Amino acid sequence: MSYGLLLPELIIAASALIVLLDVFVKNSRGRFAGYVSIIAILVSLILVLKDGLVDPTPYFNDTIVVDSVSQIFNMIFLVVALLVVIAGVAYTEDKFHPEVFYSLLLFATLGMMIVAISNDLIPLFVGFELASLATYPMAAFERERRGIEASIKYFVIGGLSSAILLFGLSYIYGVTGTTNIPQIAETLSANIMKPASLLGLIFVVAGFGFKMALVPFHMWAIDVYDGAPHLISALLSSASKKMAFIAGFKVLIVGLIALRFDWYIGIALLAVITMTVGNVVAAIQQSVKRMLAYSSVAHAGYIAIAFVVISKSLEHAEIALAGGILHIFSHALMNGGAFILASIVAAGVIARAKPGEEDNLENYAGLGKVAPVSALLMAILMLSLGGVPPLFGFFSKAVIFLSAIKADLLWLAIIGVLNSALSLYYYARVVMYMYWKDPVLERVNEPLLYVLPVAIATVGVLLLGLYPPTYRWAFEAAHTLLQMGGVP
Amino acid sequence: MAGPITWILLVLLVGAIITFLTRTLQQARIVALISSGIALLISILMYLGYESGAGMQFRESVMWIPSLGIGYNVGVDGLGLPMVILATLISFLCVIYAWGEEHRANQFFALVLLMDMALVGVFASLDFFLFYIFWELTLIPMFFLIGVWGGPRKDYSAIKFLIYTHVASLAMLLAIFAMYYFNGKMTGTYTFDMIYLLDAYSRGMVPISPYWINLIIGGMLFGFLVKMPAVPFHTWLPDAHVEAPTVGSILLAAVLLKMGGYGLFRVIIPLMANPDASTRFVLVIAVFGVVSILFSTFVALAQKDLKKLVAYSSIGHMGYVSLGVAGAVAFGTSDIPRILANTGAMYQMFSHGIITAVLFGSVGVIQHATGTRIIEDLGGLTKHMPKLAFIMLAGFLASLGLPGMSGFVAEFSILTGSFPQLPHFVLLAMFGIVFVAAYHLWAIQRALFGPYNEYLGDIHDIAIYELIPLAILVALIIVLGTPNPVCNHLYHGVMQPTATHILSILPEGGLL
Q1: pLDDT tens digits, B372-394
Q2: Which residues pair with B60 in a beta bridge?
Q3: Chain A contact for B72 (CB, 8 A cutoff)
Q4: What's the structural domain count of chain A?
Q5: A319 contact B CB<8A
Q6: A267 in Cβ contact with A311 (< 8 Å)
Q7: Considering the entire predicted model, what is its pTM?
Q8: A436: nearest CA in chain B?
Q9: SS3 A485
Q10: Which domain holds residue A462?
Q11: Alpha carbon of A403: minimum distance to chain B alpha carbons (Å)
Q12: Please, are residues A385 and A419 in contact by the beta-carbon 8 Å criterion?
C-alpha cells in the first residue's frame, strides 16, 4: 500500500516540528522557520495539485479517504496558509518567539487537512480539535490585552462548541453503532430512528453553527477576528472557518442526508438571518477589520444556502454543493487577502493611524496615491467580495443563487441577492476612501512580503472565475461527496 | 481563429491594461487613441462587411463552463452592430476630447477603454451570463469616472449610481436565472444561450405558468427601465450627470443608457411574444415612455444648470425609444407602421447617442472655459466662443428634432409608426414636443445670445481637440438626417430588416 497521497499531511506535520529548531539558528528571528514553512507548504500544495482529482483512496481501515473533496479543500487550506506564512515572515521579525507562530500555524493547517481527509467521526473530531487548539494561542500571539481577551473568548466558546458537537455525535454513534460516515448514512437511510437521531442532529447543527459562525452563534467570531492579530484573523476566517464547512458537509450531508427534511427549515432560517445580520451590521462599521469580520459572517450565510438547497431537493444537490465549495474557495482568497492588506494599514506601514483607531476606515484615505499597488489589489478584492463580475466572488455566489432558484427557492435567492446588493455598499465605501479622499502621507514603499500574498490572492480572484477547470473541480468534488452519502 | 468581436474586446482590454501602466500623459493618451482607434476601425470594417438582412453575423461560439451551460457566444445583427459602432465611435472621440486631461491621465484613459470594452461586450453577447457580466462590468469604470474626476458631490452620486443600477441588474439576474431554470427543468437542456432561450420562451415551448413568465418579464423590464432610465426610476441619472466629468457624461448618456433600450428590443419583445405573457406590458412600456417624455420636458424647462437640462433631455429621448417599442408590439391592422415604429426606435438609439454627445461635449467646453454651467450666469457666449456656439446650436437643434438632422428621422418614424396602434399616447407625446422645442431654444437663447456677461471675463474658444470630435459628430448627425446612401443603408439596409425580424416572432398583428 502506498502512502503517497498522504505525503502532504506528513510534510506539514514534520515541518511543524522542524520549525521549532529556529531557536537554535543564530540571528534567525523566525526567518528560518518562515522559509521552512513556505517550502513545506509549497511542496505540499504542489503535491496536492499534481495528484489533482484522485479516485477515492481509503487508508487505515477506511477511517481516512483521500478523494477529490479532500484534495480541493486541502488546496484551499494550503493556499491560505501560504498567504499567511509569506506575510508572516515580515510580521514575526520583531515578535517574541516567532517560531511558535509557524509551528502553531502548521499544526492548525494539519488539523484542517485531517478534517478534509477523514471519513470517520473520530479522526474528524481529532483534526477539528487539533486545528482549534493550535489557533487558540495564536489569537494571543502578540501578548497584548485585546489579543489575550480574544484568545480566551475563543478558547471558551471553542471548547463549549466542541463539547456540544461531541455530545451530538455521541447520539449519532449511539443510534447507528458506527463512526464511519458512509455507514452512518447507510444505517440511517434504512431506519431513521427518531427522536434520538434528531436530538443528535440538533446538537451537531449547533456545534457546527458555532464553528461556522452562523448567527446567532456568531458573536465570538466578531470579537475574535477583531481582537486577534490581522494575520491570525485571516487564517481563522479563511481557513479555520472553512474547515467547519467541510466537516459540516461531511457529517450533515453525507452522514445525515436521511434526516435532511428535518434540518431544512432550521438551516434556511439560519442562512437568512446570518447573511442579513452580517451585512446590515457590517454596513455600519467604521473599522475595516470589524467590517471584514461581519462580512465573513454574511458570506457564511451565503454558503449555508447550499445546505438549504440540498435538504430541499437532492436533485439539485450537486450544483448547490459545487456552489458552496466554489464560494468557500473564493471567499478564502478574498478575505485572506483583505485581512493581510488591512494588517499593513493598521500597522502604519502604508498609512498613518491614530493609536486605538488602527483599523478605522479613515486610514484608507488616499491609499490609491500613497500605495497604488496595495490599493488596486484591495479594490479588486473588495469588488469581488461585493459580487461584481467578472471576478471570482461573483461567479461563486451566482452558482449558489442559481442552485437556490433551481430548487424552487426563489425567495431565498431574492433575499441573497438583496443582501449582496447591500454588501456592495460597504465594500465600495472602502474603494471610495482609497481613491477619492486626499492622502495624508506621501508615496511610500510597499512592503513586498505583505503585498505578494495579497497579489497572489488577487490574481486568483481575477482568473479563477474565468477558468473552466475550477468549475470541473468543484462539480467533481460535489459529486464525490454526494456519492459518499449514497445519493445516486 | 478569433473573429472581429473578440479582437475588439481584446484590443480594448489590452489597451486598457497598457494605458494603466503608462507613466506620462503623452503615453497614456497615445496608447488609448491607438487602441480605441483600432476598435473603431474593426467595427467599421464589420459594418462594411455586414450583409443586409436578418440574422446574427460574425458569430463566435465556444463552450466556457459546460457544466452550467455557459458559453462565450457573441455575434451582432442590425440591432447590435450600430450599437457596437456607437460605443467604439463615442469612446474614440472621447479619447480625443479628453486630450488635455492631466489628472491621473493613465487611469482615466484606461477606464474609458475598459468602459468601451464592456459596452461592446453588452451589445455583442449572445449568452445571458456573458451579457450580465459585461452589463455589470460597465458599472465599475463609470463608478470611478464619477468618483475620482467628479464634482463636489461625487461621493453621493457615485455610490447612488452604483447601488441603484446594481439593484436593478440583480433583478435582471434573477429573471435570467429563472429563465435558465425553467427551460432546463422542462426541456432538460440547461443553457444560457440567449438566442435559444428567447426562441424557446417566445414560442411558448417552455410550459410555465403565466405568473412566472410575467415575473420574468417584470424583472427584466425593471433592469432595463432603470438603465434607460424611465421616470420614476430616473433619479440616479441627473445626480450622476451633474457630478460626472464631461467624458463620463458623454459615455453615460450616449452609450450606457442605450443598454436599457437594447434590452427592450433584444429581450423584452421576444418574451412578450410568449402566449402566456400579459399583454398589459405593452401599455406599461407605453406609459413609461410617455411619462418620461412629458415629465422630463417639464422638469427640463425649470432647470438652471445647463448640464442637468441636457440630462433631462436624455430621459425624454429615451422615452421615445420606449414609446416606439410599445407602438411596434401593440396591435395594429397593418404591419407597416409597426415596423416603422420599431426601426425608428432603433434609429433613435443611435441618433440620440451622437446628438447627446455633442450636447454634453459643448456643455463641458462651456464649463471649462467659464467655470460655470448655470444658465443665468452665462449669456452672449457667441461673441467670445463663436465656434462653440455653432456646434452647440447644431446639437440643440438636432436634439429638438429639426428636420434634416438625425433626431427628426428617428422621432418622426416613431410617432408616425406608433400612431395607428397607440393614438392617444402619441398625441400626448406630441403635446410635449412643443415644450421640448421651447426649453431647448430658451436655454440656447439665454446662454449663447443676448448681451455678454462681463463677469465671465476674457474667455477662450473651444480647443482644437474638443472641436474635432464634436464637429465629426455634427457632420454625422446631418449625414444621418438627410436622404443619402449612408443614411439609407443604415435605416433600410441594416436596421429595418432586423426590426422586421424582431417583430416577426410576435403573433400576427401584434399584441393587445
Answers
A1: 899 988 888 888 899 999 999 99
A2: B74
A3: no
A4: 1
A5: yes
A6: yes
A7: 0.90
A8: B148
A9: coil
A10: 261-488
A11: 9
A12: no
